Amino acid sequence: VTNWSSIVRTYGPVAFDTAWRLLGHVADTEDVVQETLLDAFRMHAREDIDNWGGLLRRLATRRAIDRLRRRQKAEVAPHEPLAGVSDQPESMAIERELADRLRRAIAELPDREASVFSLRYFGELTNPEIAEALSISPTAVGVALHKARAKLKRMLKVENPAG
Amino acid sequence: MNDQRLTGQFDPADDEVDRAIRAALNQAAPDGARERTIDAAAAWAQLGLPRRRQRVLRNVLALGFLGELTHTVLPPPRTNSRSQTTWIVTSVAALLIAIVAAGVAFVALWNRPMQPGGGVELGKQKAVYPKIDTADRNLSEHDLGEVEAQR
Lengths: 163, 151
Fold this sequence. Notes:
The structure holds two protein chains of two kinds. By secondary structure, chain A is mainly alpha-helical. Chain A is built from seven helices and no strands. In chain A, 77% of the residues lie in helices and 0% in strands. In chain A, helix 1 (4-23) crosses helix 2 (26-46). Chain B is rod-shaped and about 115 Å long. Chain B has helices at 3-7, 16-26, 33-47, 51-62, 67-72, 81-110, 137-150. The longest helix of chain B is centred in the middle third of the chain and has 30 residues, at 81-110. In chain B, helix 4 packs across helix 6 (81-110). Chain B is mainly alpha-helical.
């Protein structure tokens, strides 16, 4: 018998971190984490789950990207109070602006590229782990990552031509 | 196709994306946000309800009929402004619908004609006039005679 509460306690933080890095907004992250856990709960009712960490990262990434896109459509850019590792308010503001631009750009990527990129850098999975999570080949992961980075670079430059 | 493309690795000069990734990773969540989210998620998970139904249930309960239950059975609503706005809008909409439904029911009962011999009912009594039998000539003549006599 799976102890659901202990799964939430053990792997919930992983889902939170993944969603938070992609969204940068607490309320959105809370929603995504709850949706992710309920998705996982339903999946668990249908099949055995071997890798809870990988599953929750994948589901959280998927949900967070959907939410980024909805945010983009609604043209809403929610902001949290500044809180980062930097002690300088100005550099914190610049960092947050840069992170927000990256999030907007990710929302514009095709599904596979957005998922691979997010799992690699925000879910902190390796390429073989991403390949397993998305049921694609490691080569396809590498190609998607390459394309994603190239597109993001272009988009970030378009948004900030001076940079 | 080179190795870079296969592994997704880029040269150090290509740092715009890396800087943006670092910026996103450095953005810390507010204190306690993660713990609160996990606690709430654990509570909701135990209920096993889909999120939309949870919201509806919470809003219905919050209308006031079972207000206490909202706090004893269900986790408290989150305090972020956006979810509170949704909560308020849903509650006000439900309240308006209830008021309109009550108004419609009241008007329908008010306009309902009272049945002769029936019990006391809500609503005004519609005037019920006796039928005049036009064939009763004596009554008409009698009435006219009285009027003329008064003149």
